What we know:
- The protein has 336 residues and is of the alpha/beta class.
- It has 2 domains: 34-134 and 265-287, Rossmann fold; 136-261 and 302-333, 3-Layer(aba) Sandwich (Rossmann fold), CATH 3.40.50.
- The protein has 12 helices and 12 strands.
- The strands form 2 sheets. It has a 6-stranded parallel beta sheet, with helices on both faces. A 6-stranded mixed beta sheet has the order 7-6-8-9-10-12, sandwiched between helices.
- Helix 2 packs parallel to helix 9 (264-278), helix 3 (79-88) packs parallel to helix 4 and helix 7 (201-213) packs across helix 8.
- The chain is globular and about 55 Å long.
Amino acid sequence: MKKMLMVIMVIMGLLLTACGNEKKEEKVEDNGLKIGLVLSTGGLGDKSFNDSAYRGLTMAEKELGVKIKYVEPANVSEFDPFLRQFAEANYDLIIGIGFQMRDSIVKVAKEYPNKHFLMVDEPIDMPNIISATFNEPEGSFVAGALAGMMTKTNTIGFIGGMEVPLIKRFGDGFMAGAKYIDPEITTFETYVGGNSPFNDPARGKEMALSMIDSSADIIYHAAAGSGMGVFEAAKERDIYAVGVDSNQDGVIPGTVLTSMLKKVDNAVFTIIKETKEEGFRSRQKVFNLANGGVGITDLEYTKDKIGEDRLKRLDQIKKDIISGKIDVQKEISKLN
């Protein structure tokens, strides 16, 4: 009986050792950074801000080997719960997209001071938050300068999703760029608003048609999904539209003159890469024309229509902004 008891105890000891070794091996294998992304309202398929952020996330998964998960809130009330879910699940970096998420990021970051967050589009000064912001006026100024060279009616328009300071930065830069070319250019500015400011293409189209009826022949949108309606109106009335955030030139080739690139994908990828290689470090990082964070497309479908002379002038304007010869904020101040 004693011998049998000893045999049983030896077997149990071996089993426990094996289990312990197996658990340790699993822990070693599970050493990749976990990145959680909370998209803005409108979700994937906006061909704009959300799609760009998702590209950066999947690029990090492919090139850096991080583990990713993303969620698509139906409305702003879901921001807090999604952020908390990632925090509770011990994600290493939790990313919030869009200015509407600022209050939620601040709130949840205070609740979880040991968790790390990335706020894309709003500056926040907290020890567990990295802020990625963009110089939208610089990129929009370049797009506006091109519009100023291309307009035939000397009238352009801007349609934003919401009338908030961030979105106005797009419109201000665009109009300042056009007026840099010709101070006499007429400009229109309006905002979608309502319950779905960034996902109401019907309203976007209605507003664009109204501008076209008032002689606008180039319309720039900063309205995410609502901007698809702007493109439809531009195609129907045979005018140019200008896209935003992602390269939207191919949505309706030839109708979209160019797109102002706000390279959220680069920002998301860059900060994930830096976090993996250097560890988390709270800071505010600005992406601008000089470091490639904003700009315009390569004009794949419209380069021939624009012509060599205009392209050369546009290239010089870019250089002058980077060198400081053109002060975009100073040009914007002339609008008032």
